[in-house]
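Troubleshooting log. The previous structure file for this entry was overwritten by mistake, so regenerating from the original sequence record. Sequence copied from the archived sheet and checked twice against the printout by T.R.
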Amino acid sequence: MSDSSKRRAPLVADKRYGGKKTSASKAKPKPKPKAAPKKRARGAARRKSAPKRGGILGFFRKVLGWIIRLVWTITWRVTAVIAMIIGLAVAYVFTTLPDVTALLDGRAQGSVTLLDRNRAVFAWRGDQFGGAVTAGSVSPHLKNAVLATEDKRFYQHFGISPRGVASAVRINLREGRGPLSGHGGSTITQQTAKLLCLGVEYDKDIWETEAAYVADCRRGSIARKAKEAIYAMAMEAKYSKDEILSIYLNRAYMGGGAYGAEAASQRYFGKPAAQLTPAEGAMIAGLLTAPSRLAPTSSLERSQARAATVLRLMNDQDLLDDAQTAHWQQNPAVLSDAAQAKAGGYFADWVMSTGPEFFTSNTTEDVIISTTLDQRIQESAEEGLKWVFENKVREGSQAEAAIVVMSADGAVRAMVGGRKTQVSGAFNRAVQAKRQTGSAFKPFVYATALDLGYSHIDTVRDEPYCLNIPGSGEWCPRNYTNKYYGDVSVEWALMNSLNIPAVKISESVGRDYVRKVASDFGIASDLADGPALALGASESSLLEMTGAYAGILNGGSSVTPYGLIELRLQGDQEPLMGSGGGIGERVISDGAARELIYMMEKVVSEGTGARAQLPGWEVAGKTGTTSAAKDAWFIGFTADYVVGVWMGYDNNTPLTGVTGGGLPAEIWKETMSRITQGMTPRPLPAFTPKIQPAPQAPAAAAPRQPSRQNNRENVLEQLLKGLLGVN
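Regenerated output below.
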């Protein structure tokens, strides 16, 4: 049997794959490689075809690539680290921020609001804060004006504005300044952070003054700017946009002592911030760049010009249409009556000085002070002074003047301390200047004599008269006219301001008693010891002298001049303190006071004070001119008011052709003619003299003894009572 019959049948697998089993001796075909992606193939072809770069060019190329990769690696890692640090810093500051209501009033000092006798506001002192406002409660015109001026992208940024900073740097460089000098590009949020001093509160142990603290808060270094940016971003995370704007509107200084929109609105326009017109809102917003220089109380013209620019910015940003912009630019905001009065001038300064410092200049509370000021009378005094200097004084004169208007009880109704009336903190010649009084002192010599029994009809001999002054030698007073008039009545001697009779009477009744009467009437300055006391050799202030004359008008009782009626904290109904002035103890009898008023009326109606005559009114007063005419006085009164006038130079230069009966009397008349407009004349409280017998000649050159019923014992008794202070 052959072997062929034993062959096995082929496997099914061979048929399935359609292949035949090849001989072992045949070479297996090489497997076909898979096709590579076209891109990789092209890259490989290029690498195969491109010659290899070697040498120095290839080396630098490798180094440059390595540096770029290194810088990129470092940059993103450093950036990540910085971002993490900033994030942590922002998160930390976020945790330190208080509730928004605690940040609205950031004043270190309180405020003082002064009210006149009709309870109308006439002056402010300290840091004014009218009350908290919100971005939603203020006038939309004010809000729009602030955004247009300070940060038009306020509602889009996250606390800082890179575009704003870049723009500010570009402007600063173009204008030749340093990149951070001048324009800062700060957002409202950053400005608010600065107002908050980045959360650092004032500590007197660290900063010597509050001004140093504020200056430190306003520093513009790069480190400070970085801290400011972090604080701003934390505020953006903590507060809403309107809350941040509210803080800004309450804390920003807006000139004139006003902090915040409400205080500024009340200070300048006498209305709430919710009622501001576009012109008023633009004026307040315009103050934010330079509040002291642009304040309307400093320069209304500058403030109005700045407001016109703000209105244009509002128009550019479609916050006002063209018609509205044109209307409000043509009708700019104007100040309220109280704001036009500036800061209350000399009177407000004086009232502040009479109250306790912890409730006035150094108050940390908001204080309301009611005063005696009558703004109509104040305006009359200022206008009267101005009229005389414009019409009666040579142009360019540096002479000064002061006026005090007072009621008979010592209530000061007006005060002018110098020719520049719209001032604050200036030298007050009505209070601070101590000047010789001259013959304006003589009424107190005659008050002493009348109280001791002298009569207006008593006579004294006017003749050459000398006294030997121990340590000084002989002193011989002379009359202003250098004439002598023989036997004259006491009334005539005062009416014509004779010096020798005044000295004789003073020596007769005793200098010590004259000094006591004058002091009891309120002349607190040191009074001369020698016989020149009778001629006004002592120095006094206009306020003291006017107050002393008020004592004569009220019937012989002393007065303490006062301007403060009551002081209370804002919001309280009960006052913390009341008036510290008014009528005091009696100095001379009512009869003596009435007789003296009668004599002083003759000074105006027939004597040296004739220029002070007021048609239809009874006026009493006295002129005064010091040696070398360095000071000129006229103090007079009607039944309603006492008005004192002083005139002179601050450096004691003699006045040229000026006496108390001249320009001071004319200032008095111009002031009183304005004060009495619309008033009904009232008679002076003077006595009506009986028919007078002809005066008798005195014995020798000495003054006559009293011709009243008082005998010498009564005179000595009165003198003793006066010296002992017994009524």
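The first helix runs from residue 12 to 16. Archived copy saved in two places this time.
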